[in-house]
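Example protein was shown:

_____
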Amino acid sequence: MLFYAINKIIRLLTLLVAISVVTFTLVSISPIDPVQSYVGADMMIVSAEQQEQIAEYWGLNESRVQQYFSWATALLQGDLGTSLIYRSPVSEVVVERFVASLALMGLAWIVSGVLGFVLGSIAGMKQGTFVDKMIKWYCFTLASTPGFWLGLLLLMIFSVWLGWFPVGLGTPAGVLADEVTWTQRLSHLFLPALTLSVLGVANVALHTRQKLIEVLSSEYVRFAMAKGESSFSIYWRHGVRNITLPAVSLHFASFGELFGGAVLAEQVFSYPGLGQAVVAAGLGGDIPLLLGIVLFTACFVFIGNLMADLLYRGIDPRIRSEGM
């Protein structure tokens, strides 16, 4: 177990170093001028000397290598730097935005997991029937549907045409945060969460269906059928036990896809989460914020994959004994 933990920690550190180098290089060679993004619309009235002072203040006049090592040194001391866009410490921006994104991704993760498991179970029990074909068609259609397109479609139908939900944002415009009710927060959260939930159903449903079909084809299930057990009894006693944990493990391993979908959903609905902040940091050349979010996201996805690995090790003793 100790070797497994050390191995995972080394992999995580290697991953973070590689991601930070690649991200820093890509942002550095982009044509976006961080000084111009920082000044904004007042760029025409800012003199060349003032621009140089701004670049010197943020350390942008140093070489790329010096900038990276300065950032890495500060990171080792627990300082992620200051965001050029939000004029606040990166750690505060990441935590504030992650809380909003966590509510969105958590709700979508639970709903898509439960719905995908139910649909996969129904399709597996009804293999080859009209119900099975409809569920497969639904899953294959969703798997090929762009997230931003589905978000725009839901926005037009439920917000613009029907007026059932707000058009965007995380809270009503012009209302203080202390005065926002839970009902208002949920109404703003519903459509982005629905978009993510619908898109996340396909993988779980198709995987659950296939695993259930394999279980129902086994010899012990055929023996149970020969004894006259009902379909529900076979599903409950033999099916659920064998398909639940693999489906949960697969769902934990989908944190990366979940975050990628959240970036698109937050952009479509102007939801103030981590995905919207990473897009703003990329377009604004805000290197400290972008690096902070990328590292935080890498840790988030790594934890999801680690939980999936631990579940697999708990499910299958062969993996545990082989030390995989």
